[in-house]
Design goal:
The complex is a heterodimer of chains A (340) and B (371). Chain A is built from 14 helices and 14 strands. With 340 residues, chain A is α/β, with parallel strands linked by helices. Chain B is 69% helix and 0% strand. The chains are: A alpha/beta (340), B mainly alpha (371).
Chain lengths: 340, 371
């Protein structure tokens, strides 16, 4: 009993020690010469490997942007594929410097697990997909349906809550991966497939007859997805946070990877653009970075909108609309504090 | 009497084929497939199932298959069968993982050297076997050097090792290291010395009572907390150690089964001849015990080799991990069948090979105890 306590205490102390020693992540990153970034082992559009074996997608883009901000070179990233089970320990133990892996920002993850979510780069929510010929127009009519649901996720709990509050019954069909869900759903082993709306859209896009399936209008949960870092290293947190903010602001100000050179050359008379791109003021210096940090991010990775359209936008096979992920000026929720 | 029959001297007539009633495909079928009403029913049922499955599978895998395309959409334009183009485009990733492309020759060389090192171990009539075995003993170091680099070769991080290479590296290392370790543990468990015996029993029972996944999690996450900050202890190495001790515990039990089947008289006879403990084990007991244990040992190894795919859970990209990442590429999404069928073929070839070798070994070592 007491031995157990001693062991646990020792473990906890070591853990604290590991976290404490990792303070000054920016210096560590500079010293080793690359950003070690945790990504997902594979979510369509968000994180995947291309035919040449490079990690690409909406989430790795954030890592590339941070590398561009710190080193002026977006390729100085090393990726650690993490699963839903290993992601938090990998970050807490210092194995990775940041985690960009469609992770929902929740109270307990932020407060209890000791991480800092540095913002939201995709507002998601849980939805339902059904075959059109089921003839159902609303999730409230799904009483008695069999539902394919990924086990051990927040979606499972949300589903139970939703059906309970609406006094309905359902029959869960537990599945493990997205691919399994797709196969089961198409084979008719469940009437409904539920997961994050972005995942539904991505799955549906790859069906042979996407038009035969609809995503119901109800979104039953809030899933703000964002990158996170270890709590307690404000400088590093600021670097990652303002890299994301710079991408969002760049879209708002109309700075793209195509016109960033003209903008930096004074084509824009917006002082915020001048501050963002480092031709005025010293925002980079305050972060401990080069004055051209945001210029490098935009020119090498692109602004928020460009990255969105490149990997998950309506022109890609994933085919997601901007929706609530449009800029606040277009009626969405994407909003970054001013660069000043 | 016509003259068409040839004449033979007595005793030179060639053997005539056996009569049709005892020989030939029809008799074989009647004997093996239609010998009783139950067998007739089972045969017909099997043929029906084959009829249901085989034509469709062949149609999908070969006749309708698309071999050359740039994305799933292009595949579907050309046909509804399997889209092997994905496997074709990503073949390098499936085999080498993220190993740098210009260094992949090192993995190829490694594979050839490995096969050469394997020959004298598996085939006891190999020429110059004893000298050849020295090379086999040195091979692990050569292999490590080729894979990871150093000494003039460009270094490669172990996290870059992936695909089927990773499965084979973990599998082969686990197999090679766990057999001696397992034998020692089995001997220790039967030892008369209480401390040795207790330690071995504790080790075996603890490791065997824990799922491999748990050990892998310990390797990937817990060790980070316990090791002093700043220590980098390579993840692949940690996994290798965990897989080895896991498999060693199983091997120990298999070998113990073999040891217990050897009559006590054998040990006593060896003692009577004045052999020491290690001599009697090496010369008398173990050769017999291991021979009995071959099926069990190979069974454990086949299981171990397939278990290497579990590393996907801790974020290493083995052959299945590469497949999962490929399926997340919007271009290729939805081709799970192709990916898993290809992975199944890779594993089947290796596991079937192991199983055939074990049968060969059993036949070779069969010295008259067979009932």
């Amino acid at each position: 009993m007491s031995t157990m306590k001693v062991l646990l205490a020792a473990g906890a102390l070591t853990a604290v020690g590991a976290t404490g020693a990792a303070a000054g992540t920016l210096d560590d990153v500079r010293a080793k010469g690359f950003v070690q970034c945790g990504v997902s082992t594979g979510v369509p559009g968000f994180s995947f490997t291309d035919d040449a074996g490079n990690w690409r997608g909406f989430d790795p883009s954030v890592c590339q942007a941070v590398a561009a901000a710190v080193f002026g070179d977006s390729s100085k990233v090393k990726y650690t594929p993490t699963t839903g089970k290993t992601r938090f320990t990998a970050l807490a133990s210092g194995e990775i410097d940041m985690l960009a892996r469609n992770t929902t920002w929740t109270f307990s993850r932020d407060v209890d697990l000791g991480f800092t979510f540095i913002g939201v780069n995709y507002y998601d929510g849980q939805g339902f997909m059904i075959p059109k010929n089921l003839g159902v127009g609303s999730a409230k009519d799904l009483d008695g349906a069999s539902v394919c649901i990924q086990t051990g996720t927040t979606t499972e709990l949300n589903l139970a809550d939703f059906f309970r509050t609406n006094n309905m019954n359902y029959e869960p069909v537990p599945i493990e991966t997205n691919e399994e869900a797709r196969t089961n759903y198409l084979a008719g082993r469940c009437d409904v497939y539920t997961t994050d709306a972005s995942g539904l859209a991505a799955s549906r896009a790859a069906f042979d007859n996407p038009a035969d399936h609809i995503v119901l209008p109800e979104i039953i949960s809030k899933e703000p997805l964002g990158p996170l870092v270890r709590q307690g290293d404000e400088q590093w947190g600021d670097v990652v946070r303002w890299t994301l903010n710079a991408m969002i602001n760049a879209e708002e100000y109309g700075v793209t990877s195509a016109n960033v050179d003209e903008m930096a050359g004074g084509a824009s008379n917006n002082p915020e653009v001048a501050r963002l791109l480092g031709s005025e003021g010293d925002l980079g210096g305050m972060l401990g970075l080069d004055a051209k940090w945001a210029y490098n991010v935009i020119s090498q990775v692109g602004n928020y909108g460009e990255v969105f359209e490149r990997y998950i936008g309506s022109e890609t096979p994933i085919g997601l609309e901007r929706g609530i992920n449009a800029l606040y000026t277009d009626g969405g929720l994407i909003y970054a504090p001013p660069m000043r | 009497m016509t003259d068409t029959t040839e004449r033979y001297e007595p005793g030179t007539h060639p053997d005539l084929p056996p009569p049709m009633a005892t020989h030939g495909p029809i008799v074989w079928m009647r004997k093996n497939l239609f010998s009783s009403p139950l067998n007739v029913a089972l045969t017909l049922l099997s043929i029906y199932f084959l009829y249901l499955i085989v034509p469709g599978a062949l149609q999908w895998a070969f006749f309708d298959a698309v071999w050359d395309a740039g994305s799933r959409a292009e595949c579907r334009e050309q046909g509804q069968g399997a889209c092997w183009a994905l496997v074709d485009v990503r073949f390098g990733q499936f085999i080498y993982g993220f190993y740098p492309e210009h260094l992949r020759w090192r993995v190829d060389v490694l594979a050839v050297l490995f096969l050469i090192a394997l020959v004298p171990i598996l085939w006891d009539k190999a020429p110059f076997r004893s000298r050849w075995l020295i090379y086999s003993a040195v091979f692990p170091f050569i292999g490590y050097f080729l894979l990871v680099g150093g000494l003039g070769l460009e270094p490669v991080e172990t996290s870059k090792i992936g695909g089927f290479t990773l499965n084979v590296v973990i599998g082969v290392t686990g197999i090679a290291a766990s057999l001696p370790l397992g034998i020692l543990l089995a001997l220790g468990r039967r030892s008369n010395m209480p401390i040795v015996r207790t330690l071995c029993v504790m080790f075996i029972e603890f490791i065997r009572g824990v799922p491999l996944i748990t050990l892998l999690f310990v390797a990937s996450t817990m060790l980070n907390y316990f090791l002093p900050p700043g220590t980098t202890f390579d993840l692949v190495l940690r996994v290798l150690i965990m897989v080895t001790i896991f498999s060693a515990a199983y091997i120990a039990e298999v070998v113990r089964g073999g040891l217990q089947a050897i009559p006590k008289g054998q040990t006593e006879a060896a003692d009577a001849m004045g052999l020491r403990y290690w001599q009697s084990m090496r010369l008398v007991v173990l050769p017999q015990a291991l021979k009995i244990s071959i099926p069990g040992i190979v069974n454990t190894f086949v299981g171990l080799f397939k278990d290497t795919t579990l590393v996907i859970i801790i974020g290493l990209t083995d052959a299945l991990g590469v497949g999962r990442a490929a399926l997340s590429d919007a271009k290729w999404q939805g081709l799970a069948w192709e990916v898993y069928v290809f992975a199944a073929i890779l594993f089947f070839v290796c596991c079937f090979g192991m199983s055939r070798y074990s049968i060969y070994l059993e036949k070779k070592l069969h010295t008259g105890h067979k009932r």
